[in-house]
Amino acid sequence: MSALLLSAGAAHAGAPPTTDKPTLAAAGEPRAADAAPTPASVPATSTPWRPRLRAFAKRVLPPLIGIALLIGIWAMVSMKANGIPSPLKTWNEAVVIFSDPFYRNGPNDQGIGWNILSSLKRVGIGFGIAALVGIPMGFLIGRFTFLNNMCDPIISLLRPVSPLAWLPIGLLVFQKADPAATWTIFICSIWPMILNTAQGVQRVPQDYMNVARVLNLSEWKIITKILFPAVLPYMLTGIRLSIGTAWLVIVAAEMLTGGVGIGFWVWDEWNNLKVEHIVIAIFVIGIVGLLLEQALLLIAKRFSYGNT
């Protein structure tokens, strides 16, 4: 810094300009070029694909090991127990079944594809009606304390009832198996939607409601502009739980009502003593339920706060 001052003072005194410009190095301070490490001095780092490969292995290997362990236990059980098909035999039967999943040989002999579609149709109708009734009811129960106190004992009493207990009521009322199965899905899948929606409404910050009161908003605008965006994550959680319940219920309902459907197909294969087909149906039911849940999880993430 002293060199800078001396150079400036010389210029004001009429001294000829010098070509040597003052630098920080001249003041005794290290230069950036000298402080920076040379490329040769940079230590060799690990290649970038190694962390990615390690992360991929941590994510993929545990599920693969779990599936391999399940298949190994299954194979050991099939060797010890009579009647339990081996994984290889089940795989060969699955290849045959899924080579033509949409054949029709009569009303009670159809491909597994038609049975899955029939079950999904019943679940869609019953679940759709439950959503149309349950979500508005959840809003009302969460919004009005009197209604909440009135419905709470009824919901607490009816919610734990087994799905199979509702099926005879449906057969008595509708006199047909198909609407009775839809009724069972409806009554069993409506409770998670009501409870989660009501809980979401009750957890809306009171400041939001105070602002609505100051602005003198109508009840419709309070629901559509304030409550609905705030309650949406809770509502989607209730929908996800309900679709899982509906898919569980349809198998039991179709076993008892008959006709066409994945539940009826399981019962029919049991009567034909085709255990390997029952094992295939178990995997199909699990995979379809997993796909339904994952689809609703994607929708829930899309509408959750903080996601773009």
UniProtKB/TrEMBL annotation:
Protein name per its UniProtKB record: Nitrate/nitrite transport system permease protein
One GO CC term, this protein: plasma membrane
Record membrane topology: Multi-pass membrane protein
Domain spans labelled ABC transmembrane type-1: 116-300
A Pfam family hit: BPD_transp_1
Thylakoid as UniProt keyword: no
GO biological process: alkanesulfonate transmembrane transport; monoatomic ion transport
Superkingdom classification of source: Bacteria
Keywords: Cell inner membrane, Cell membrane, Ion transport, Membrane, Transmembrane, Transmembrane helix, Transport
Gene3D superfamilies, A to Z: MetI-like
Native source organism of the sequence: Niveibacterium umoris
Residue ranges of the TM segments: 60-79, 123-142, 154-174, 181-202, 246-266, 278-300
SUPFAM superfamilies hit by this protein: MetI-like
Keyword check for Acetylation: no
Similarity comment: Belongs to the binding-protein-dependent transport system permease family.
Primary location group: membrane
